[in-house]
Amino acid sequence: MQMHSDETVPAVDDMLCFALYAASRAVTSAYRPLLQELGLTYPQFLVMQVLWRHGAISVKELGDHLQLDYGTLTPLLKRLEAAGLVTRRRRADDERSVEVGLTEEGRALRGSTTDIPVAIGEAMGLTEDEVDRLRLSLRQLTDNVVAHGTTP
Fold first, then answer.
1. So which residues are the signal peptide here (predicted)?
2. Distance CA 108, CA 56 (A)
3. What angle do the packed helices 70-82 and 59-66 form, to 10 degrees?
4. Cα distance between residue 67 and residue 145, in whole Å
5. What rounded mean pLDDT belongs to the chain?
6. Whether 97 contacts 60, CB under 8 Å
7. What values do phi and psi take at 88, rounded to 5?
8. pLDDT at residue number 77
9. Residue spans of beta strands (DSSP E) within the chain
């Protein structure tokens, strides 16, 4: 069987989308062992980060912070609730809205995560300025792609 190479097709390593994908997988993998000790997945950790910062908020607000839809967020919240870390309840002033809050155990877990940013920073091997520039570039990229997707 003869190998065929089409030079008009870019190498996967040269594609920006692949670089983003590979970087995302690498960073998420760096979190995995640190979070496993706490019984959290990376998406669950992100939920907890938002709750630690903002306190009790609606599922809609939580989804907005994490750029996740209700269907994706609900199973995460169910697992966190089953683990005793969060509570979910309908708001008294608006029965359609579900509020998510932290339990005592959920609040206490925060103390166990303080070393995670340092460990991830070391794994990334970037200076603080490089991290800031990369974060700004990625936010701009996200905003641009989202805006482009909403135009006819």
1. none
2. 15
3. 110
4. 14
5. 92
6. yes
7. -130, 130
8. 96
9. 57-58, 86-91, 94-102
Side-chain half-sphere CA neighbours of 62 within 13 A: 30
Q: Each residue of 80-96: b (16+ CB within 10 Å) or e? A: beeeebbeeeeeeeeee
**Contact yes or no for 109/85 (Cβ under 8 A):** yes
- 2's tokens: 């003869």
Retrieve residue 21's tokens.
């994908």
Taking each continuous run of H as one helix and of E as one strand, the counts in the chain are 7, 3
- As given in the structure block, the two tokens for residue 47 are 């939920």
CA distances from 46 to 8, 11, 41 (A): 40, 33, 9
- Mean pLDDT calculated for residue range 139-152: 85
As given in the structure block, the two tokens for residue 4 are: 């065929």
CA distance 52 to 152: 38
Residue type, 134: L
Q: What is the pLDDT of residues 32-88, one digit of tens each?
A: 999 999 999 999 999 999 999 999 999 999 999 999 998 999 999 999 999 999 999
Q: What is the mean pLDDT of residues 129-148?
A: 94
